[in-house]
Amino acid sequence: MTTRDIAASLHRAQTVLQRHPEMGLHDDTPATARWQGGTRVATRHGNGTEVASDMPAELGGTGDLITPGWLFRAGLASCAATTIAMAAIEQGIVLTQLEVLARSRTDTRGLLGMADAGGVRVAAAPQDVQLLVRIAAPGVSSQRLRALVEEGCCRSPVPSAVQGALALDVQVEDIGA
Q: Which of 3, 76, 81, 145 pairs as cysteine with 100 (C-beta 3.0–4.6 A)?
């Protein structure tokens, strides 16, 4: 699909949603994770795509697959890159490079359910999350590119969820043995 086609698609979607804002709210495709034994998990998309994950050897896994934490960072980086590219297309900015690096820092004690020296449970969530965006577009000022990145990240569902510390509703269904 060309950038012109993408811009037209985005414009059509905006036009429809301006007329019918109720159409904007929809259920996202669920991800179904199935335990495969040990610390291996296979996560499946509704279209059949499957991603396998495992923990590093020092945490009981084999260390030969990606970790769930890496999948989180991958989702963060790819979502931000996608919405930045979409915003660039809408604004007529021709990108020659766009790369988003997602980094985080996590205390493994939280994953293991441990407490700190004061007896307070260590958080399992990353303590900080960063995005490094490398971007280039001929003839576009650094200031405009920075604004483009900020706009793209504000419109990006995964970075927005992280920034807003979205509440997680956990429901448990006991299906028996």
A: 81
